[in-house]
Amino acid sequence: MNGDTYIIAGGSSGIGLELVRQLSGTATRVDVWSRTPGGLDISGVVRHQVCDFSDPDGCLPEPPEEVQAVAYCPGTITLKSLRALTAEELRRDLEINVVGAVRFLQAIQSRLAGREGRPASVVLFSTVAVAQGMPMHASVAAAKGAVEGLVRSLAAEWAPKVRVNAIAPALTDTPLASRLLSSPEKREAMAARYPLKRIGMAADAAAMARFLLSEESGWMTGQVLAVDGGLSTVRV
């Protein structure tokens, strides 16, 4: 990872911001594409480019000439029954989670280049709700299910020069989930649902993303890895 160049879409808050912090100590350059700088410390290797992935007509920044690894972190949490879900909300979830990811990858595809014989790496984000059916999650699960299909398709299409993997977190303490964790009582109730009896932290998913972007995961592609406190597989 030393000396690599990264692009982190949505890297100014939540998991993306934590990933930028973890990468910035060893990277040559970390470009963040997001609407605002948010919590970024824009100094040293970290740069910010204004970009809104919710705007289908918005222009994307010019990527560096060579990029070793990228992550697409923008996401949504739309929790509604199917009866209450609107077409506009569904389109927004698809626009941000799927179409935005495709536009991002199309913009940087020609710049992805491995170093020293190793492939470049891409990380996308899914959700535990794809594999573990959950009520009120129809919209986001449908969108993230499409992301998982995209991961496997591109892993085949871009092999052996680029690896493509995804992370499927459960509820994580980020600004996106703030309304679900807005009181001590809500936090306690949510934590009790998990075998490990705590909710996820941004550092949990960011550490997995960092691993998948690194050469330590060099024989992995087309995978969707759960970082969910055991929710999807363990019953206690």
Describe this structure as you would to a colleague.
This protein is of the alpha/beta class and 236 residues long. It has a single domain, classed as Rossmann fold, CATH 3.40.50. 33% of the residues lie in helices and 18% in strands. The chain is built from six helices and nine strands, in the order βαβββαβααββαβαβ. The protein has a seven-stranded parallel sheet, with helices on both faces. α5 (184-192) links the parallel β7 (172-173) and β8. The longest helix has 22 residues, at 87-108. It starts with a strand and ends in a 9-residue tail after the last strand. The mean pLDDT is 96.
**Which regions are unreliable across 5 or more consecutive residues at pLDDT < 50?**
none
Assembly state: single chain
Largest sheet: 7 strands, parallel
Give the beta-strand count: 9
CATH class: Alpha Beta
Q: Distance between termini?
A: 38 Å
Portion of residues in helices? 25-40%
Q: Give the integer mean of the pLDDT values.
A: 96
User: CATH-wise, what's the superfamily?
Assistant: NAD(P)-binding Rossmann-like Domain
Question: Descriptors for this entry?
Answer:
alpha/beta, 9 strands, two-stranded parallel sheet, seven-stranded parallel beta sheet, 6 helices, Rossmann fold, globular, 236 residues
Summarize the structure.
This protein is of the alpha/beta class and 236 residues long. It has helices at 14-23, 87-108, 128-131, 138-158, 184-192, 202-213, and strands spanning 5-9, 29-34, 46-50, 69-72, 120-125, 162-169, 172-173, 200-201, 224-227. The chain is 33% helix and 18% strand.
